[in-house]
Amino acid sequence: MRIPPELIEEIVAHAREVAPEECCGVLTGLGTQATHVERAENEFAHRMRYRIAPDELFRLTQLAGSRGEDVIATYHSHPRSEAYPSQTDINEVSQWDESFHVICSLEDPANPVVRAFAIRRTHVDELELSDG
Questions:
Q1: If both were cysteines, with which of 1, 27, 62, 92 could 73 make a disulfide (CB 3.0 to 4.6 Å apart)?
Q2: Fold assignment, 5-127
Q3: What is the DSSP track for 10-47?
Q4: Domain assignments of the chain as residue spans, ordered by start
Q5: How far apart are alpha carbons 111 and 12 in whole angstroms?
Q6: How far apart are CA 61 and CA 58, in angstroms?
Q7: 113: burial class by Cβ within 10 Å (0-12, 13-18, 19+)?
Q8: What is the distance between the alpha carbons of residues 2 and 32, in angstroms, rounded to a whole number?
Q9: For the residues of 53-98, what is the DSSP string, one character each?
Q10: Kindly report the CA angle at 100 between 96 and 101, in degrees rounded to 5?
Q11: Using one digit for the tens of pLDDT, what is the confidence trace for 40-68?
């Protein structure tokens, strides 16, 4: 997955702004090339869970489409744990055939970690991130 450094910085900034709650949003672009970060409201407003409301996800999908792009991944933060999908994260997306997720960890606030994953049912594969 290709995510330019300025988009990584946007995700980290969003995570810091809403900590200690989890932030969430989507990455839009084409294929595996991210071109925009679109913030969403965490419907749960919780420290350990997130959900993008269906109408908000629809709006973001329409926005991406208006630019000739797709929603290529969701992102969220882990304010106190590593950048790896939790069992709750995996359970939430298990109904999708395949999805891409970016997780920003603020476990060490001075050194945020951003990683990307493909989740297929209950199987998690880390994706290599490049600068795009």
A1: 27
A2: Cytidine Deaminase; domain 2 (3.40.140)
A3: HHHHHHHHHTTSPPEEEEEEETTEEEEEEEE--TT--S
A4: 5-127
A5: 10
A6: 5
A7: middle
A8: 6
A9: -HHHHHHHHHHHHHTT-EEEEEEEEESSS-SS--HHHHHHHTTSS-
A10: 110
A11: 999 988 788 899 999 999 999 999 999 99
